[in-house]
């Protein structure tokens, strides 16, 4: 029988919009933001589960609810078998959290002092914690700076220390809100590898992580839930999600001299189901467009005609494998 480390049941969270900028006069307006709406998901024991969605989708709100920092307006959840509303202390003792936006470290303490403090708080025996703190500081490449105040740390160094703090007491369930944010590409890679190979595969920890990075989710996660505007829009393994693109192919075209009007006119073509584009950061005239379309071979000529009539120059054309981002665009009509 499957056993689950996290089960959410109809979670809804609304925030009241606040108006005005001067604190004493700030008032709650009657308008609300539905940050989460009827969120149902379950994470199996030992699973690496990714929550993927754009800014403001509700990812952090869900992580805060699961870590008992805030309570939902409706619904509840079980974490490590404990109800977040009835047994928050038990939930807290069983999880390790990397939170985004919340300060999880004392800036007036050194890195080592922070870890020593949290080890005592989590009642890690001293002989265990001494060894573990040493190992974690080495792993996070912070040994040389271990005796400096955290306020003097760069944001990437603080993030590394926050990860060390989250796993210090060896919790079985980890909630990681954008764990690789602010880390340079090379350290991001080693943290991803550590999350998957060590924490998940070797140590069998259940991990729920949030990310904006499609490739991070694709590379790491056994299962992915897409969240958009507070709702789970799809939940499956990355492979299964990609089959949702169906028979459509993804054509990637790089063109110069292209206006947004020309790009948006592409959706009038009968064989184009949807598209997604980015302008080259150095020039707004050069764009890379991903077109989700039927039968590239028979329709390529017509497509090329559209570009040449608009006076655009095609630099490259390739047929790509669908990515998780393509699935997200198909489901929501929005780019991530
Ligand atoms: N304390 C708050 N008061 C009012 N609204 C809030 C509060 N916290 C979050 N929200 C709103 O709830 C929605 C969900 O926010 P949340 O931080 O959960 O999104 P997110 O998916 O983590 O986004 P990001 O990718 O930018 O971190 C947003 O519209 C946000 O403005
Ligand atoms: Mg967030």
Which class of the largest domain in CATH terms? Alpha Beta
End-to-end gap: 36 Å
Rg over CA atoms: 23 Å
- Percent helix range: 25-40%
Question: What's the order of the H and E elements?
Answer: EEEEHEEHEHHHEHEHEEHEHEEHEH
User: What's the CATH H-level superfamily name of the largest domain?
Assistant: P-loop containing nucleotide triphosphate hydrolases
What is bound: which ligands? adenosine-5'-triphosphate, magnesium ion
Give an overview in words:
The protein has helices at 59-66, 88-94, 111-121, 126-139, 155-167, 185-202, 214-220, 238-242, 260-265, 296-309, 324-332; strands at 4-19, 27-39, 42-44, 48-52, 74-79, 82-83, 95-98, 173-177, 206-211, 223-228, 231-236, 249-256, 272-279, 287-293, 313-320. It is of the alpha/beta class. It folds into two domains: 4-236, P-loop containing nucleotide triphosphate hydrolases (Rossmann fold), CATH 3.40.50.300; 246-332, 2-Layer Sandwich (Alpha-Beta Plaits), CATH 3.30.70.260. Strands 7-8-9-4-10-11 form a six-stranded mixed beta sheet, sandwiched between helices. The longest helix has 18 residues, at 185-202. It is globular, with a radius of gyration of 23 Å. The mean pLDDT is 91. The structure holds adenosine-5'-triphosphate and magnesium ion. Magnesium ion is lined by residues 59-60, 100, 177.
